[in-house]
Structures are given as structure tokens and as C-alpha cells.
Write the C-alpha cells for this entry.
Amino acid sequence: MMLRIKRVPTVVSNYQKDETEGGGCGRNCLRSCCLYKAKLPLYAFKVGKNDAGKGSATFGDENPSVDFLNSIVLAEWEDRMQRGLFRYDVTACETKVIPGKHGFISQLNEGRHLKKRPTEFRVDKVLQPFDENTFNFTKVGQEAILFQFEPSENNVAQYFPSAPVDAASLQSVVAINVSPIEYGHVLLIPQILERLPQMIDCESFLVALYMAVEAGNPYFRVGYNSLGAFATINHLHFQAYYLEVPFPIERAPSKKIATTTNGVKIFDILNYPVRCLVFEGSNSLKDLSNTVSYSCICLQENNIPFNVLIADSGKRIFLTPQCYAEKQALGEVSSELLDTQVNPAVWEISGHMVLKRKEDYDGATEEKAWRLLAEVSLSEERLQEVKELIFAAISSDTKADATVAAPSLDNVDFLPNPRAKMVPV
């Protein structure tokens, strides 16, 4: 099954250059040297008790509502595409669904690994301090920023095409990914001027969850890669993009293993090459966010690399501890898999395989995709140890108004995912 990607007129350039190439700032960046009197669009999102529903905002103070995903995120992304701010034209990349019952998605992106930024930190430590001397997102030009993203002061979603940037209070921004994987590929950078390293905290994760809720479309997913799980920049950020096909991990059946007293249900994923946990349902978005955040913090503190996929408009969250980089370092990954140069991060783990060689794309099969992803997974025994660590963390942590309580283990029947009916045929 071939996928059709929306195409826009594109002039490709390497506009985003390293600072060293320009001999000084002169970049209209996000630092104090350039933020004076700066203005950027602002999307103020609504914060409510259950925080559910598709995002739309009034345009400024009085004008009709505007759709968050189509009229702001994707429209602004297309604008930057037409202005030539990307390193290559991702809409020209071939994409297909690999034949088979799981529906793995394959993309041929021959230029990305040559043009994206190299990793500038150790890959054996999940927690590392922020390093001002390496690339970080305060160095990007303001033209790459789509909008500021922050909670509404009056609990009404609003969009302002031009709003002053206050360096003292600037919170999160949404920017283009100049080395995109897919249409609409953006970065959410929480508290950008705080220069936070790539590590989950409760406040930032909640902002990422709000972004998924505002999009209100199951084909717009938000992802996170920890250090050691193929994040390439040690400055806190989430990724998101739009792809109108279900991910294989979303279609995998699941079995409920626990329920917290605040209503968060925890599942094991079954019949999938990567073992992972799924979190869904709660009394509020904050309860769900806190449960997942504490789980991620537990992994960070135990130096366990992981990836997170926020799916179904924020209703389901997949947490995947992984060990591929460790196996690479120990020489336990076959040369056949290493030759593909695929680094299995959140998108690959979810079933969207970004391939760098045409021979791998032309020869892509479900068996090959499964074999690669199986190398990412923890063993059943190791995953059980990790689950025990997570359950201890979410039951003992008393932060955030004690919203996370001890899970009660449930023995339930096999639960097929209700989205399985969306399998392409």
C-alpha cells in the first residue's frame, strides 16, 4: 500500500547553519542578543479538568475560531517549507505500508542521516548536564519558530499572530524540525530559555500532553527519545508529526496489568516485537501525565533509556524501555542490522521505519522490521524488573498533591485494541 504525502512547492536550502559558519550571531536567534522587542505568534491553550477535545481557539480577542492543527501547526509548517528552511524535501520521500498483518510503515529517506546534526554527548548515560557549548535550540533563528505555546490566562484557547516575547517569562515554543521525518514534523521545546537537558519532568510532560490534546487528531502523534535511546540533542524537546495511517504499535493487542487509584490503567502490549507499557484513562489529564512522568523519572534515575509515544490525541501513552545502544556497544547486534544504519527511536519503535538505503527500502519485509525491533526490546525478565521499579515509584511518590497512588494488579482477559479495525488492506 503506497501512501500519498501532501506536497507543497519547495525551495530546499541549508538555511539553518551552525553559528561558527556565520562568524558571530546575526541569526535573529532566541538569546538575549536578539529577543529585545521580538514578536512571535502565540497559542494559549485551555486548561480544564478533563482536558479532552479537539483544539480550536479564538483568533486574537474577538475573531472567529481557528483550528490548531490544520490552520496553525500544519499551515505554518508549510509556510516554512515554501520559504526553504528545511535541509531537504521530505515530501519527496517514498513511503509505503509493508505487506503483512502488522502494517509496518517504511520510508526511504536517503539524505537525513547525512544532513541532520551529529550526537554531541555520551550515549551510555540517560541523565547528563546541559552543555552550552554544544548545539541547543536557543541558537535557532526566530523564523524557525512557529509559535509560542503556553496556558491561557483566562482558560479560553486563543491564538495571537504576533505577540511580544518576554525573555523573563517565555515558556514553550513549537519549531520546525529542519531534518524532518514526515509531513508537519515539529519540535515542542518546553521552557526553552531555561536550557533544560533532555530529561522528563512533570510540568514539561504535561505541556506535551496538552499539545496532543489540542491537535485533536489521532494521526498527529507526539514522541520523546531519552539520551541513550537515540535523542541527538541534549536540550529538552519532544517531536510530533502528522501521518494518516495507524502505527503498528497502536494496533497491537494489550492486557491490563494494573490500575492506580486515580483511574490510570496500565497495560502490557502483546504480540509486538518491542515489549512496552501503555497508560490510559484517568480522572484528569494531570493524573495521567503525573503517572507517566514519575515512571519516566524512575527510568532516568536508574539509567534505563526509553522512548515515549503520545497517541490517540493524548488518550494513550506508550512507554518503551530499550537496550539497542547497549547491545551495539557490547557487539551483540548483527552486522546485517548495523549496515542498515537505522537507529530505532520512538518512531521506528512505533512501526514507522525510516530507512536510509534504497536496497533496504525495496527489500523491506515484515520479518525484517520485526527482527530489527526485537533487538530493541528488553527481555521478559528485565522488563519485569523495570515494572517493579516503576510501580514502586508511582506508589511511593507523594508529589503533585499525591495524585499517584499504589496500583492494584488486575487479572483481566486479552483486550484487543479498538483501533485494530483501522488496519489498511
Summary: The longest helix spans residues 285-301.
